[in-house]
Amino acid sequence: MEKLIITAAICGAEVTKEHNPAVPYTVDEIAEQAYGAYKAGASIIHLHVREDDGTPTQSAKRFDACIKAIKARCPEVIVQPSTGGAVGMTNEERLQPVTLNPEMATLDCGTCNFGGDDIFVNTENTIIEFAQKMVPLGIKPEIEVFDKGMIDMAVRLNKKGIIPSPMHFNFVMGVNGGISATPRDLVFMQGSIPSGSTYTVSGVGRAQFQMAATSIVMGGHVRVGFEDNVYLSKGVVAKSNAELVAKTVEIAKLLGREIATPDEARQILGLKK
After folding, report:
1. Does residue 1 belong to any structural domain of this protein?
2. HSE-up of 54 (CA within 13 Å, CB side)?
3. Does 228 reside within a domain?
4. pLDDT tens digits for 201-235?
5. 80: exposed, middle or buried (C-beta count within 10 Å: 0-12, 13-18, 19+)?
6. Number of CB atoms found within 10 A of residue 77's CB
7. R_g of the chain, CA atoms, integer Å
């Protein structure tokens, strides 16, 4: 079984310091959380950025500052900007970090109800537009899927040559409006992707470590971090993203999976450094 790639989603766009005081907002806070996660075993930093007051932003200038600060502390790590941004942002806003030519970026492949009146909109034309911005620049899309139909969309666009092979998926499981976070559903999702694809599993909330363990056993990869969950265990708030990564590393060791370095992750994912 190939080595385990751990992605740390260190802040997201929705979680706040009211949920956990350690959620990073400033450039220095983001760099510190990224460095801690890297030292604990993360190869990829999945990056949203904030203004100093916590407001989500897709500003290329802010992404550039944060990426440079992260790379100054851990130059080997893979930084994966989000093009998801926050609910209500325009396509133009969301695409800004692509101009920085990162190794990877996220590509959301469907629309999802996030609860209440919040709808995360990704039309087919939006997905095509985002892919056509990333692929010519050599940016590998991480295909974000919240349900089975989003896999089908990615496969259709792959057959049309819009998303290249081999594809790498992130199964976001347990979010309101998406597929539930159960081993049954992970088996279904894994069986729905093309041969030769790779995948990461992001369990949301209390499902984070259950789904991490299931993915580790099944040969997939894992995302943890404050974007998806701020607790180390029931009722215990995590002090850092590093704690969440370290717990994942311990689970992996117990289950016999070695941890990939950033360069090993690049090889597994076919990235061009």
Report:
1. no
2. 11
3. yes
4. 999 999 999 999 999 999 999 999 999 999 999 99
5. buried
6. 22
7. 17
Q: Which residues of 175-207 are buried (b: 16+ CB within 10 A; e: fewer)?
A: beebbebbeebbeebbebbeeebbbbbbbbeeb
Alpha carbon of 232 to those of 42, 180, 207: distances in Å? 16, 21, 11
Whether the link from the prior residue into 166 is cis, omega within 30° of 0, is yes
Query: Which of 73, 152, 66 has its CA nearest to residue 109?
Result: 152
Judged by DSSP in three states, 237 sits in strand
Structure tokens given for 161:
């040559």
The residue range of the domain holding 107 is 6-269
Residue 100 within any structural domain of the chain: yes
* Structural domain total, the chain: 1
Three-state secondary-structure class, residue 198: strand
Burial code of 119-154, b = ≥16 C-beta within 10 A, e = fewer? ebebeeebbeebbebbbeeebbbbbbbbbeebbebb
What tokens appear for 93 in the block?
Answer: 């806003």
Tell how strand 6-9 and strand 221-224 pair up: parallel
Categorize the per-residue pLDDT at 86 as very low, low, confident or very high, splitting at 50, 70 and 90.
confident
pLDDT of residue 273: 60
Domain-embedded: residue 133: yes
Q: Is the pLDDT of residue 83 over 80?
A: yes
pLDDT level of residue 136 (50, 70, 90 thresholds): very high
CATH number of the domain to which 244 belongs: 3.20.20.70
Contacts of 135 (CB under 8 A, 6+ apart): 141, 162, 163, 164
Indicate the pLDDT class of residue 87, thresholds 50, 70 and 90: confident
